[in-house]
Amino acid sequence: MWGIHRSRYADCNGSEASEEAEIVVNIGGVRQVLYGDVLNRFPETRLAELVDCSLKSSEETSLLCDDYDPDTGEFYFDRDPDAFKCIIELYFYGEIHVKRGICPMCFMKEMEFWKIDSGFLDECCKSHLKEVEEELAEIAEKVKTILVDREGDPSAAGWQRFQVSVWRLMEKPESSLPAHIIAILSFIFILVSSVVMCVGTIPDLQVEDSEGNLTENPTLEVIETVCIGWFTVEYLLRLISSPNKIKFALSFMNIIDFMAIMPFFVVLTLTSFGAGVMELANVQQAVQALRIMRIARIFKLARHSSGLQTLTSALKSSLKELGLLLMYMGVGVFLFSALGYTMEQNHPDTLFTSIPQSFWWAVITMTTVGYGDVYPKTTLGRCNAAISFLCGVIAIALPIHPIINNFVLFYNKQQVLETAAKHEIELMALRSEDAQRGDAHGHGLGHVCATGAWDWGGACRGDILDPKVREGVRPPSSVDTSHESTAEAVEYPVS
């Protein structure tokens, strides 16, 4: 038995009847002696129901436990003994704390078996349980996505199957070899288009038109046209095959894709109206602005880079820290630019003509850039510049560390989730094979906690995915039983 002194848990009245109400339980091979006065503190629980088992029939007793030995009065439960150590804390301390290394989801099943409400969990355990549930929901979603990508929907009609096939081909590089090749080609076209856009601005590679103006090289224009053609076909195929057209059109990355191809067709349309339209000043400015918008295509690389996607997600989760950084910088810029203008305005050769003009000096000083185009000339102004420099370093450094931590945590979590989803697919395949072989031996796979399907917080993922994901797969038992009878149980002496 675990080292528990009776005097520590005795009834406050010290009644002799309470001392005699001993309940012997065997939890997964570990014997434990409990006392009725302690268990009756929570009469609605399963353990409290054992106190009055002497007044119940054998059928009612069998419903409370897995086995009962009337000779020794020992109740046997095929449950996790480590989890029971946490369960028993409720009767002594009034709350439950999940020990490190125990799967939170499996522990909730243990609490449900012992008829203990989740409200008795410690607050820290509740928050951890919520995080685990959210992570497991993400894993379940990834598993669903992988299964759909691999198997598809067998009940889909002909057009729907074609639509799903095209969607996988354009959006799921890991679904097949052709999809992987298309993703590589798209990546190459993005790089070539970006390089052509940059190289086309080199004067030595440009050619003169009939009026002597420099224009883009015809060869580069042909390459640009081919790239735009690829982007257009890719965008249209993805739009046609998208299951939700409105969500697709409003997605940030798809807006970037549209902005990358739209300037080409607008310029092409304006050119088709003739030279007279193109000579208008407003039209020329619009065309120039549209050409600059071509730089948006570099953001298309994020579609094929998990690192850029992780960086974007990390920045989204760090909006509070970024807001603090902007607030610190804004306060510092306003303060030091006003002080700089005040200290420098009486100097005959001052470069601080106004407070708004001094904002530029404060920004480049606090960010440690220091172009040197604006600088103080008085002693007090230089002291103000030194202080603003130090405050700028501190203001930038303070929020940066949490942002970096968010990026590292988010990146590691994404890696773990992807690995866990793939591992879950492998486990489901093993269970399917085990179920197909039948129950000839009377058992299937053991509990996945022992197989290593753990998340970053120590939670297993074996039995908590959506039942629709695991349809047709027999769930494993919640506890791995290693003892054939209570006679083989291990009894720990009282310390």
Describe this structure in words.
- By secondary structure, this protein is mostly helical.
- It has 20 helices and six strands.
- The strands form two sheets. It has a four-stranded mixed beta sheet with strand order 2-1-4-3. Strands 5-6 form a two-stranded antiparallel ribbon.
- Strand 1 and strand 2 form a beta hairpin.
- The protein is flat.
- The N terminus and C terminus are likely disordered.
Features:
single chain; 495 residues; mainly alpha; 4-stranded mixed beta sheet; two-stranded antiparallel ribbon; 20 helices; 6 strands; disordered C terminus
Write a brief structural summary.
With 495 residues, the protein is mostly helical. 58% of the residues lie in helices and 5% in strands.
Largest sheet: 4 strands, mixed
Average pLDDT figure = 76
Binned strand content: under 5%
Terminal CA distance reads 9 Å
Radius of gyration: 35 Å
Total helices: the number is 20
Strand order of the largest sheet: 2-1-4-3
- The helicity comes to 55-70%
Helix and strand content put the structural class at mainly alpha
Helix and strand succession?
Answer: HHEEHHHEEHHHHHHEEHHHHHHHHH
Runs with pLDDT <50, length 5+? Answer: 1-19, 442-495
Bulk shape: flat
Total strands: the figure is: 6
Any chance you could write out the topology, listing elements then pairs?
Layout: H1 6-9, H2 16-20, E1 22-27, E2 30-35, H3 36-39, H4 46-49, H5 58-64, E3 67-69, E4 74-77, H6 81-87, H7 89-93, H8 104-113, H9 123-151, H10 158-171, H11 177-199, E5 207-208, E6 214-215, H12 218-241, H13 245-250, H14 252-272, H15 275-278, H16 281-292, H17 306-317, H18 319-344, H19 355-366, H20 379-436
Parallel strand pairs: 1-4
Antiparallel strand pairs: 1-2, 3-4, 5-6
Helix pairs in contact: 9-20, 10-11, 10-12, 11-12, 12-14, 14-16, 17-20, 18-19, 18-20
